[in-house]
Amino acid sequence: MKSTALALLAFVSGLPALGQHIPDLYLHPSTSLSGDWNTIVDPYESGFYDYRWNQRDQSKDPGRAESFFLDAVAKDKQERVEYNFNTSPTLKVPGDWNTQKPEFLYYEGSMWYRRAFDLAGAKETERVFIRFGAVNYRADVYLNGNKLGEHIGGFTPFIFDATKRLKQGANSLVVRVDNKRSKDAVPTLNTDWWNYGGLTRSVALVTAPEKF
Length: 212
Known about the structure:
By secondary structure, this protein is mostly beta strands. 6% of the residues lie in helices and 31% in strands. It contains 1 helix and 10 strands. It has one helix at 2-13; strands spanning 30-32, 35-42, 90-93, 110-119, 126-132, 138-143, 146-152, 158-161, 169-178, 203-209. A 6-stranded antiparallel sheet has the order 3-2-4-9-6-7, with no helix packed on it. The protein has a 4-stranded antiparallel sheet with strand order 1-10-5-8, with no helix packed on it. The longest helix is centred in the first third of the chain and has 12 residues, at 2-13. It is globular.
């Protein structure tokens, strides 16, 4: 047993440092984005897919009226916009949606979260990241209408470099959370623990020097 452990240690020590290119953002200043987020439940996923089941965020013209990630607001009473984050209910982040409101206790599907925040004083020589502690299960992340990326897996932290998408002043961070089960996911279709949904851990803006 001892010789096996030593052999494993020798093997691992000879491997490249897989984490050396992953910034340890815990060491850098951060601003919490936790708290009340506006939310829109989307059981038909009409804010993410069009009627041909194509992702709206991959279209050249996704349409302001239905594409929730654009966080659009009607310019006047004549413009049709099918959603409004400014008047939508809120959920606490971090937290699951199942225990915050009784109507979501058994809900499995898509929920949109929106957090509006102001950015002031960021230096041109700094980089700004958005760090998520965990989102269950799939997260599609948008900043000011632009997709930063997606993450699959409900129990691991992940980050996006938001430097080029942030604006001085008002910003809109939108996250589509989908906790539907599938045979290739965790949990799978048959599971013996509760399938929570939501931004289950903290969210933060983290600033770092351009080189670090």
